[in-house]
Specification:
This is CheW-like domain-containing protein. With about 170 residues, this protein is mainly β. It is built from 3 helices and 9 strands; from the N terminus they run βββββαβααβββ. About 25% of the residues are buried.
Length: about 170
Amino acid sequence: MLLLTFQAAGQLYAVDAARIVEVVPRVNLRPLPHAPAFLAGVFEYRGDVVSVVDLGVLLGADPSSDRLNTRIILVDRAAPASTDVAEECDAEASSGPSSRASKPRRRSLLGLIAEQVSDLSSVDPETLIASPVQLPRAPYLGRLAETEHGMAQLITVEKVLEESLAG
């Protein structure tokens, strides 16, 4: 498993590289009136309007600094496509061969503002450690991974925005 590591709220975090669409420089965002403080705004990315979350604020600290190494990590919030061949065969048999080709999975983009975005780390998925505490107000905090830079907590991207905020 390949992880992109970064800093947020002064700590090391990571995102599964398979969920990353692109890492872009920090750009000017259009603010959204009456949005929660962690929702920094929106911007246009290749014809799509993308909501952007400031991970510093989301994690209870100051907003991310506007530095050269501060980036917007564009992630796909949609659940990853199944890689199980047996599941794909069952789905194809029950719905016909043309349904899989006619229903491409649509991406659901989300931007995450993070600092010191720079390193990819390879981690064996079996070495990931379950978080010792489950925080109801932070369902996006996932398992822990030991990387060459220290222990990083995974951000579960599909849980960053509540369903009521996700478009």
